[in-house]
Every structure is written in C-alpha cells, then in structure tokens.
Design a protein that fits this description.
The chain is an all-alpha fold. It has a domain of about 60 residues. The chain has three helices and no strands.
C-alpha cells in the first residue's frame, strides 16, 4: 500500500518537476540573450557617441570616402586594395572570398576572348568555307 502511494506521488510530481527544469533552462537562455543584446546596445551607443565628434567624422570621410582637404592631392593605387584599412580588393580573389558577380562575368568574358577555340567534333573552323549540305535520305 505504501509503495502504491509513493508511486502515485512520484507520478504526480514528475510532470511539474520537468516543466520547472525546462522553464529554468529557458529563463537562463533568455537572460544570456538579454545580456548579449545589452552589450550590443552599449557598443552601438559608444559608436553613436563617436559619430557625434566632428574629428571622428572627418577621419571616417577621409579613410572611407577618400576625401581630401583643400590644397591636398589625393592618390589611390588601383588594384592594390586598402591594406591600411583592411578592405580587400574586390577584383582580388586570392583571399579565398568569392568575387562580385560582375567581376566573375567580366573575367569569363575576357578569358573566353583570349583562349583558343576547343578542338573537337563540335568545334567549327574559323575560316569561312562553303556551306555543307546535310546528307539526303534515299528517295523511295
């Protein structure tokens, strides 16, 4: 009899206990997400404060947009990328990243223009000649 009461008690408490543990893990996950979002908000607030500074804006305009002050001469080397700012050259695919679609398209056009035609039964002669007649079928 005592065993039956104990089993009923265990069965009655099993589901609420499982729900309690599940909700605690969900609360911990939400607290972690909340702290990550708060850190991101703090970082964005600091960035917003930096953008309120005219000197920071001037530095960003010079480095990102390549602005120059009156009397200065701006120079930019084509094809070198911005090594100082860490911005990769979009035409350079050696870094492992994929190039932009237009760079890939232009590369395929230039390689097709410079490569010799493939030899084989489907390749046609580049010299013009008389048109060939298709084989005629025997008349009945």
């Amino acid at each position: 009899m005592l065993l039956l009461v104990f089993c009923a008690l265990v069965l009655a408490l099993a589901y609420p206990l499982q729900q309690y543990v599940s909700q605690n893990s969900q609360i911990d996950k939400l607290k972690r997400q909340n702290s990550e979002k708060r850190a991101e908000v703090d970082r964005l607030r600091q960035e917003l404060e930096r953008w309120q500074d005219p000197d920071y804006i001037r530095i960003q305009a010079r480095s990102r947009l390549h602005y120059v002050l009156p009397g200065e001469t701006g120079l930019r080397l084509l094809g070198s990328g911005d090594a100082a700012s860490g911005v990769p050259n979009p035409a350079d695919t050696r870094s492992g990243g994929s190039a932009a679609w237009y760079a890939q398209l232009w590369g395929s056009v230039t390689s097709a223009a410079t490569s010799p035609p493939a030899a084989g039964p489907t390749a046609q002669s580049s010299t013009p000649g008389p048109a060939r007649k298709p084989p005629s079928s025997p008349k009945r």
